[in-house]
Design goal:
There is one protein chain. The chain is mostly helical and 571 residues long. The chain has helices spanning 2-24, 28-40, 52-69, 73-78, 80-105, 111-120, 126-136, 140-167, 174-203, 209-216, 219-229, 234-252, 255-282, 284-293, 298-350, 363-382, 387-394, 401-407, 417-446, 453-475, 490-502, 519-544, 549-566. α5 (80-105) packs across α6, α14 (284-293) runs antiparallel to α19 (417-446) and α15 packs across α19 (417-446). The longest helix is centred in the middle third of the chain and has 53 residues, at 298-350. The chain starts with a helix and ends in a 5-residue tail after the last helix. The relative contact order is 0.12.
């Protein structure tokens, strides 16, 4: 009964804080942490000590999957270099710098344990940053980089943490850490791709939204558990599975199933994210009491945590300079690359001699590669950002509850362990509140322009025209017949053509429907045929990268609503 009351009170508190946060313009995770800290010191509130395995193996996989499945795989690929630099190189740099700081400030801790704590405080939590960015209209590319970093950097941090903990009891060579990391990434990627592909194929055979959504809830663990059992990164396997599932679901899953799954996963992700931030705040009193019981100075731990927070922020700011410069160079190179691709495309279309390395390539395949390459170049040219965007990314390095949970996995015989837990908490809360509360002012002061809404509208009109042309061809196909092979009634066919052309509900058919024809059934079948034709054309266009992910998502949503409206209900 007590656990039930705690759960009910927790959900009510989460919803209430979320409502208030929206009204006052503060990101809900920030408010939940503050509420949790205040509640932890109230009389009668029990000491909260969350098992780290609960967070890292039960809560983290579905959270990462929920984020990855909604991320554009094309955008993730295009910004993979920036994401990996932040999620791998920056995490390693922060781990090294923080490790040496802790080793200096805590005599007797040992370099291995110091690096373990450095790895713990290195990964960022993108939840608060992205919630603020969406509310203030940050450009999509910045959001993709922040979300992508948040998805991948946990894997880097946990691998480094595992190596550092192993080094506390035995000798670990640097080359072995590098080899283990590469193997972990490769195995996790393979597992993630296989699980994502297989589960989408299996779920595509379930014509029931409830069963489909229920199965989707275990998909993150189907990727996480085998990868961990093979000594790879379960976190990275989950992220890969989410990216693959999100990319393939429009091709294999029914629209009705995907719409139902989206709502359910949004609810699950909201409760898990909110709950973990609330629990993070509730643990403060427990961490303080543990440090006091161990006879370790609380003020000393808080001071070290504040210094580590400043160090982490400084390392991130310094790291972003070369990153922004690299992105600018990529944009400059994309100009010349686009020119070369245009020249090659002209040669291909006019039948001129191609360079030797392309002579044996199939012309259709080469044409597709040229279109994708040109689209990638256009992306880097048109959606670039300068130092202002870099400053937003630099100031979005908030840590979160994963840092607190990972700290609790330190061995019980680690020197200064209670103090280390408190240091990790101080770093997480300091970066979360300091940067999270000031990030809106930073964004407004920098005046970063959002996505070009006018360009997106024009692109959506162009895309709609291409989809409409495909529908016209599909409805004019002489082979378009009913299930029993009979042609469709001409009056109903004309009505559907009118509806698909005007996007308005047409009047009654101008002609007379033949006797024995069920107009509702034929109307529904033709509308589904038109929507499926648009879906096939959209997937074909998406493979070329001709439109940005925002326009593609808008078109996909429109098609999903049509398909869900006219598809046969389950059973």
């Amino acid at each position: 009964m007590e656990l039930t009351l705690i759960a009910v009170f927790g959900v009510i508190s989460i919803v209430a804080v979320a409502v208030v946060s929206r009204r006052i313009g503060v990101a809900a995770p920030l408010a939940l942490v503050v509420v949790g800290i205040v509640l932890s010191f109230l009389p009668g509130v029990p000491h909260i000590e969350v098992e780290p395995e609960l967070v890292l193996t039960v809560v983290l996989p579905p959270l990462l999957y929920a984020s990855a499945v909604h991320m554009s795989a094309i955008d993730f690929r295009r910004d993979l270099k920036a994401i990996l630099r932040l999620a791998v190189l920056l995490v390693v740099a922060t781990t090294l710098c923080a490790g040496y700081l802790f080793s200096w400030l805590l005599p007797g801790l040992g370099l291995a344990a110091a690096f373990a704590l450095g790895a713990i405080i290195s990964p960022t939590d993108a939840v608060a940053a992205t919630s603020i960015g969406k509310r203030l209209g940050l450009p999509s590319r910045l959001m993709t980089i922040l979300e992508g970093e948040g998805l991948v950097n946990d894997a880097t941090s946990l691998v480094l943490l595992g190596s550092a903990v192993a080094a506390m009891t035995s000798t670990v060579h640097l080359w072995k850490v590098g080899v283990d990391f590469v193997l972990s990434v490769l195995i996790a990627t393979v597992v993630g791709v296989l699980v994502g592909l297989l589960t989408v194929l299996v779920r595509g055979r379930l014509a029931d939204a409830v069963l489909n959504t229920a199965l989707s809830f275990v998909v993150p663990f189907l990727a996480f558990l085998p990868a961990e059992a093979m000594g790879a990164s379960g976190v990275l396997a989950v992220v890969t599975t989410g990216l693959v599932s999100g990319h393939l679901s429009p091709r294999f899953l029914r629209a009705r199933d995907r719409l139902a799954e989206e709502v359910n996963w949004q609810t699950v992700a909201f409760l898990l994210e909110s709950g973990i931030f609330l629990l993070m705040g509730l643990q403060l009193r427990t961490l303080v009491d543990q440090a006091q019981d161990a006879g370790q100075g609380i003020a000393h731990a808080v001071g070290i945590g504040l210094l580590a927070s400043l160090l982490a922020i400084a390392v991130r700011i310094l790291f972003l300079g070369p990153l922004v410069a690299s992105l600018r160079r990529d944009a400059d190179r994309a100009e010349s690359f686009r020119t070369a691709l245009d020249d090659l495309a002209d040669r291909l279309s006019t039948g001129q001699e191609l360079p030797h390395r392309f002579k044996k390539t199939d012309p259709k395949r080469l044409e597709g590669r040229l279109r994708r390459g040109r689209s990638d170049a256009e992306f880097r040219i048109n959606e670039t950002f300068g130092w202002r965007g870099g400053m937003v990314i630099a100031w979005s390095g908030m840590r979160g509850a994963i840092t607190v949970a990972a700290a609790q996995t330190l061995p019980t015989d680690t020197p200064y362990r209670p103090q280390l837990l408190l240091i990790a908490f101080v770093v997480a809360v300091t970066t979360l509140l300091l940067q999270g509360l000031t990030l809106p002012r930073v964004i407004r002061a920098l005046r970063i322009p959002g996505d070009d809404a006018a360009a997106d509208r024009a692109a959506f009109i162009d895309l709609s025209s291409e989809l409409a042309a495909r529908v016209t061809d599909a409805l004019a196909d002489p082979g378009l017949t009913t299930a029993d092979g009979a042609p469709y009634d001409p009056a109903i066919l004309d009505q559907v053509r009118t509806w698909t052309a005007t996007r308005r509900q047409p009047p009654a058919p101008a002609g007379t429907v033949a006797e024995g024809v069920d107009p509702r059934e034929q109307y529904r079948d033709l509308i589904l045929a038109a929507a499926n034709a648009k879906q096939d054309e959209l997937l074909s266009i998406r493979s070329t990268g001709a439109y940005n992910s925002r326009v593609l998502a808008q078109a996909q949503s429109m098609i999903d609503n049509e398909l869900a409206r006219f598809q046969e209900p389950e059973g």
